[in-house]
Specification:
With about 130 residues, this protein is an all-beta fold. It has strands spanning about 5, 10-15, 20-25, 35-40, 45-50, 60, 70-75, 80-85, 90-100, 115-120, 120-125. The protein starts with a strand and ends with a strand.
Amino acid sequence: QVHVVESGGGLVQAGGSLRLSCAASGPTFSTYTMGWFRQAPGKEREVVAAISRSGRNTYYADSVKGRFTISRDNAKNTVYLQMNSLKPEDTAIYYCAADLTTYVNDIYSIDLGEYDYWGQGTQVTVSS
């Protein structure tokens, strides 16, 4: 069992920044692919960013590319999402998830169905 806990959400004005943190349990965190997802009211959950187990390979949705940065600290069992230049359309519940698939190469998945453990989410609200 892997426990995933997000923190760092809140209310921010457009153009502002937030940093989300995600702590995941387990002695093998460095083998997990990690992802950030979000779900806005009335919309489906979508991938925001993903990071490979080493941290060398990352993915960003087009809507956040250039504004958000995903990173991880395997020594702290934590993954981060730095969000800059926030827009009202970034308002959503943000979820962190762990994919325990052992990929042969240092890759990631952007398929929600591949992620095994999810946090409860943290609300991000961007006011205009």
